[in-house]
Amino acid sequence: MAGYGGVQGGLKNIYDSIRHFQRPTLPRTSRKFDVPTLVLHGDDDQIVPIKDSSKKSAKLIKGAKEIYYREAARSHGYAPGEVNADLLKFLRSVQEVGKAALNLAATQSAHLRRSAVA
Known about the structure:
This protein is an alpha+beta fold. It has five helices and four strands; from the N terminus they run E-E-H-H-E-H-E-H-H.
C-alpha cells in the first residue's frame, strides 16, 4: 500500500484516480448537470489540485455552489465538522427551493383548473 497525506491505496488505484482527474471528459459531463451541485475542496490538496478540478467543475456546472476549506488537504477527512455543517446548509437551501417550486406548481395547477371550469 502506498499512502500520501492520510490517503492509502494500491499504487495502481492511486495512479488511476489521478489519471481520471486529467481526463478531458469532465467538461462534457459537467455541462449536463441539471441538479443543485455543491463543490467542496481543501485548498491544500496535494493529490487533486483545486485549479485543475473543483474550480473548473464549478465554472462548468450551472449554478454550482463552491466551498473551499482553508489549509485542508482532503476536505472530506480533515474538516468533518465544517463539511457536515456546510452540507446541511446546502441541503436545506435545496429543500427550500424545492418547496417553493412545488408551491408554485400547485398554485398554477389550481389556477388552470379554475380557468378550465369557468
